[in-house]
Amino acid sequence: MSEMNTPILPPFAQERRLLHRLVYEVWDHLWPWSRHGFERQRFIVALSLGLGAVVSVAWLLAAAGRIGANATIGWWVGWSVFEVLVRRQSKPYVKEGPWWGTQYRRADMADTICYVTFKNLLIGIVLFLAMRYFGALDFLQGLPELKWLYI
Amino acid sequence: MRLCHFFARIGPVRIGLFVLALLFSVPSRASSYDAPLPPQLSSDPDLCAYAPCRDVMPGADSFSPRQGHPSYVEAYRQAGTTRQLLGYVFLSTDIVDIPAYSGKPMVTLIGMDTKGVITGVRILKHSEPILLVGIPESELTRFIQQYVGKFAGAKVEIGKSLADEGQIGLDAISGATVTVITENQVVMRCAYAIARQVGIIATVSMPAARFTPQTDLRDWKSLIDEGSVQHLTVRPSELGVASTGEPYIDMHFGYLNAPVVGRSILGEADWKRLMAELKPGEHAFFIIANGSASFKGSGFVRGGIFDRIQVTQEPDTYTFRDTDYQNLYSIAAAGTPTYRESGIFILRSKVFSAAYPWRLRFLANKIDRQTGTKTFASFEREYWLPGRYLDGGRPVVNTPEPTWLHVWKTKWLEIALLALLLAATATVYSLRDKLVRRATRKKKNWISIPKYVTWTLSIVFVGFYGLAQPSITQVLTWLHSLVFHWRWELFLSDPLIFVFWWFIFITVLIWGRGLFCGWLCPYGSLAELSFKIAGALGLKRFQFHLPMPWHNRLRWLKYGILAVLVAVSFYSMSIAEKMAEVEPFKSTFLVGGVWNRAWPFVLYWGVLFVLGLFIERPFCKYLCPLGAGLAVPGTFRFYGLKRKAECTDCHACQKGCGSLAIDDAGVIDRRECLLCMECQILYYDDHSCPPLSKERRRRSKAGLPLTPIAANGYYIPIKPIGADKPTEGAAT
Questions:
Q1: What's the CA gap between A88 and A111, in Å, rounded?
Q2: Chain A interface, mutation test: which of B232, B246, B635, B641, most A Cβ atoms within 10 Å?
Q3: What domains, with CATH codes, occur in chain B?
């Protein structure tokens, strides 16, 4: 037994096919909502849809270099706070032990904050690096169709 | 206990704010740190109206307007009716653009007499965090005074003088190696450039390029692919200006004297016409550009100078006048992209050689979004003709090694020793299961000796000698680099910190923050070692833990400090640097003794130190923003510590946990655990771990053998021989 945390299993943890489990897991990291959460948090669901759209626009603007880094970070923090609230209800678990393993534990508030902060930081880094490497930033910056979004 | 009541009354948040306010209110002694400079300093013809030129040229009573490229002013002294030329004064940012450790240039004013001897150096502005509050201004003044009397053409390096190689050594500033290496480059390169320009140092011509007799024509893509045409882009975000949906400037450029390049770009007839116009020692370049800005400059008028582009070939810089410009109406190469602006520029110099690399430099004003001030910025792209166009190929060029490489070579022994220490510590920790089995609660030498050795080496070698104490400021710098502009050179410039951070990144994910915080952090080691020594010297009876309710409240303070520092850093990095003084690391290791600091720092350091004699690691538990930052990824460490089912209602480990990381339910808080190994020693100790001890006594009474303890922390069960074999007839 390691560190005495309460074990918990997300629905996809029983999946034995490696590729399927990987896809489920990636989805689990990217999609903070769950069917269970949808049923319990109708107000938050409605808020989520609006906020999700706004964050997408903010992200697009940031990627296109239309809003400053500080504003981007503001959005990032705002979204992370919101994601913590959603995950506390819909997916209250974090991984236990090695990241390639299949053990999970029940997450307390601090676990969820750490998880969302760290995960979103990694996602942000990977996105920026990938977009820079593949030239997506250059493409977006020169896209006249995005001019109506300029700030 | 009175202390606890004091904390209880004022609350953790107020304590944190008080500490930050106290430190933040300390006036900086570094007067040139982020000193506001008049905007005219970088452009006004009368440089000395805005800069203390007399300070670097003693005896001068008048100065000429800016002149030359790069610019300088002449310093004069009135001697009777005649004006005597004393020397030259120049501003570093007019000549070189070398970022220091902060990523920003150190704006330096330099004076040099007519014989090329430096008469004075004055740093007008810098943004070096270590010189902000860590190292006093007097150290910087002492360092730059060493340049007075040095010849501009001398080989001056940081370190020892080497008479055989003609190298003059300068004493560095301990703890600011990168800063002084950069400043050395700035001062000596500026002095050399001006000394060459005014004729003090003779110009050494490089062999002129001789071209191969190739005649084939190339399309645009081929020219780009082979490097005959180069590309330089500057984005609005790099200059802090609002985006318009296109690059600020997007230039392609190339060298037209090379027959294949010239013919391909201009076409045969136009190229021949151009070459016929050129005299020996004249070189033609073309530039085409798109973007919201103009490379010709919006303020360009006939008779003026193109102030946005330069060509540099170390150590010379070339600018262009209107007489050096010709129209470029079209480009012959197939596949050339459309462009908005074009031109041909003639460089007139017998010193320039196209056989060697050169750079096209685009100059612009950069607007600081935080302050709105404009600063000089330059963007460069190297150009070197492909070897196939040069008779005999490209010549050998001795490129000066980058600063970071120089530092790595200088410190190779320290780097190797640090790597050895880190590797040894990781090895010892990975063998923890074997070591804790050999240790007992009463005799912990197998764990405590490696820890004491590691702590001592960390304090003495890493902290005091290597000055490699990791700090939250490095995390903030890393975050900023990630968001704004990533520069590997910035991180490579401090090799011990670089190596240490890689180790921290890896081990935090594998084992959590405890291996660094509990075993290797120089300040943490000092705190723990002084706590142990105080206990051994008789203070043990006064040593205590804060009550758990208070511990559980105060431990969040460090996360609040971390959040405040991160948030403030995106408003102002310099304010965040000052606030990061909540870490007593600089006072402990970087300034040659805490007594070299202002009294609030001494007081703060002293309070923490004295508290640390009675409470184990109070700073690490409650205030350290770096520990808080590492706790975030450390929450998801791959390999945790072992626990038993009985740990939920047995509190033996909890009582021995110095970092108070075990709660009443027996759960180890990964964010607080400093991997002291106390609970793991108990895990296998059949005289101290209650369930094990109980089983030992039961077996002893029953006369049963004590089997070895398995990896799960229990005695291996006793099974009669054959007990696991199926009984006769039972098998189906």
A1: 10
A2: B635
A3: 31-197 (no CATH), 220-394 (2.60.40), 406-641 (no CATH)
